[in-house]
Write a structure and sequence with these properties.
By secondary structure, the protein is an all-alpha fold. It has a domain of 214 residues.
């Protein structure tokens, strides 16, 4: 059974790896309709993965171990199918180790948040990621951010704050919201490291190494947690999260990036927020509150405006340094 998804993923990865290798050399002259469709598919795939997190019942650490185990198995298998050696080189090791630790933190804090708060809150915080990443790029990489861009960032942060503190949540839910904030903050750091790592190594080898390092970081949970702490349902859900949130969303994103610019792709990717919220409501009875619906709409609107502004500014001054590649989606 595992050979079927591996075959599909190998085909997707083969196409998207070629796109990634050309992305800094080939201008975006692809088919806009194809690129937009792939970007929407990436958003939908990420939304499906997000909606599955509330169904997990096992301890956060153990869920993280399973998720990273599946990631290691899938990405290393893809490399072997393609005839590549999955070994990490010396100059790649610092990036892989740092990213592996960060990604392990993202996974366990996300699982902890899903146990304690509504997934819509987690999704809204995640949707604010592009705005916060733009701020980080401004100070770390000296990238320009116009006054209108800063206005969009401020609107995004204020709208996300409404979802976190304006929903009259209880003590347990506030803890979950805190875990969600920690997860997204760590994911942004992971984004910045990833942007440098993909310049020196293939993306499939990078993700495979990250998954292995993360698995090793969380493996002590296997010795301190009872084996009956998770069910076959948990394992199945985590596998689906890995497929939809990791391989599927990544593959479609990279394919879309060959056709159109990153700004529109990220904007289309925001569709995952309402989709994930709706599916979590349907399957796990996670009904969003009015404040979260309003704030979620405002976050999507503000981030879309920011991405539009950045795209328009890029058209005026020419393509900027195209080395920023988003991390594996937060819901992966």
């Amino acid at each position: 059974m595992l050979l079927i998804p591996l075959g599909i993923m190998s085909s997707i990865r083969r196409t998207t790896q070629a796109a990634q290798q050309r992305i800094q050399k080939v201008p975006r002259h692809g088919n806009a309709a194809v690129g937009s469709t792939a970007a929407i598919g990436a958003g939908l795939s990420g939304g499906v993965a997000s909606s599955l997190w509330p169904g997990l019942q096992g301890p956060a650490g153990l869920i993280g171990v399973i998720r990273l185990f599946f990631g290691s198995l899938i990405y290393i298998s893809i490399q072997l199918v393609r005839g590549r050696k999955p070994w990490i080189r010396r100059n790649e090791a610092p990036y892989v180790i740092c990213s592996g630790v960060l990604f392990a933190i993202v996974i366990i804090t996300l699982a902890a948040a899903a146990h304690r708060t509504l997934m819509v809150t987690v999704l809204i915080i995640g949707a604010a990621g592009p705005a916060l990443t733009a701020v980080a790029e401004r100070f770390l990489f000296k990238r320009q951010l116009s006054a209108l861009g800063w206005t969009c960032v401020l609107a995004t942060c204020l709208s996300a704050a409404i979802a976190v503190v304006g929903a009259h949540s209880g003590g347990t839910e506030r803890v979950g919201n805190l875990f969600a904030v920690i997860s997204e903050t760590t994911a942004i750091t992971y984004t910045l490291v990833t942007s440098r790592a993909v310049k020196i190594m293939p993306i499939d080898r990078y993700l495979g190494g990250v998954s292995v390092v993360g698995f090793l970081c969380l493996s002590p949970w296997l010795f301190v947690t009872r084996l009956d702490a998770y069910s076959a349902k948990d394992v199945g859900l985590v596998f689906c999260i890995t497929i939809f949130g990791g391989v599927g969303s990544w593959g479609l994103f990279l394919f879309a990036q060959r056709q159109i610019h990153t700004g529109p792709i990220s904007a289309f990717g925001l569709i995952g927020t309402p989709v994930g919220t709706f599916l979590a409501w349907v399957f796990f009875n996670q009904t969003p509150r009015a404040a979260q619906i309003v704030s979620g709409f405002l976050v999507i609107l503000a981030v879309s405006a920011l991405l539009y502004v950045q795209t328009q500014e890029e058209k005026k001054v020419g393509p900027l340094d195209q080395d920023m590649t988003p991390p594996e989606p937060i819901a992966s």
